[in-house]
Amino acid sequence: MNRLPGTRSPKPADLPEYRQWCASLFSAGFVGADWPEEWGGRADHNALQDFVLDTELAQAKTPRPIGAYNLISGALLASGTQEQKEKFLPRIRQFDDLWCQLFSEPDAGSDLASLRTKARREGDDWVVTGQKVWTTHAHIADFGFLLARTDPAVRKHAGITAFVVDMRTPGITVRPLREITGSSDFNEVFFDEVRIPHANMIGAAGEGWAIARSALAHERSQSQREDSIADAVRQLVQIAADSPRDGRPASEYSDVRHRIGSFFARAQVSDLLGFKGLLKSADGVADVGDSPVSKVVFTEANLDIATYALELQGNRGVLDSPDEEVLDGGRWQEAYLYARGFTISAGSNEIMRNLIAERALRLPRDPATG
Hints:
Elements: H1 15-27, H2 47-59, H3 69-79, H4 82-93, E1 99-102, E2 118-122, E3 125-132, E4 143-149, E5 160-166, E6 172-177, E7 186-197, E8 201-202, H5 208-221, H6 229-242, E9 244-245, E10 248-249, H7 254-282, H8 290-312, H9 331-342, H10 349-360
Parallel strand pairs: 1-4
Antiparallel strand pairs: 2-3, 3-7, 4-5, 5-8, 6-7, 9-10
Helix pairs in contact: 3-4, 3-5, 6-7, 6-8, 7-8, 8-9, 8-10
């Protein structure tokens, strides 16, 4: 519960079975249905079908494919060569390869165009040096979708190029980052004179920024359904009933009931916003603000709900060991820690608000901040 899709990496021992399951979703036409028919898509694809699928899988607690498969497939379908499509797209659908996104850097997260990882041409290869960070699933990925600076002399957006990189290439070092939850789904990735064949360049040199933006739009159009936070609110009712306050169940107090009621209203707003965005996308009238608004509303309500779940537990809320004193085996403690991260991942909520203001509402920039 309270997980955004694609944030948890399968255990290595589970990967063979997981790959088989993901491949079956592709082969059945449930995933990748929006691709061109020649590459396995369906002529009758409709975005509402994706919503139904995601709803069913979410309710069944069944995983969907993780990694950057949507991102790289969008880039290859739009800008890849015929040879690249023939080489990689069938393997994506068979889930032979798990992909990671090599975009963010220590000094280029929200301002991606400031990336410093460099690639220089040497014969039939590009030689890459630099560092990426917060790379989800890099420790189990077979391939990566890489952005690197190939021309430092031009304006920062224009000097970026996109590549496919084999994560087993000599010179690549992956270091998992231990998160506050104790898991390690994110990684640092270091490139030390890594040689990438010129044939692995996507599009032309300098087109990486445009390719990445187009691919991100494709990925967002196929974003998976978030777990409904209405389910979490219903669980708050049980927590309140099981949590004593002054010798009485917390659920008997009007302030607790009002608070839970307000959370349920926010959950309904979140669900309806997501469904509205889906319908607009299906009708071809999606707005640039739809996804950012949904993301902010969902993640902030999700965080507030998880925080209140701990407050209701009183002293038990600060415990993190799975003993008899911890409610639900500590799942709410973990949900709280993840909930804060969701307001940052996939574009921090501060960045989302800027997108809403500048692109959706077309408000002027503050001259003091540029």
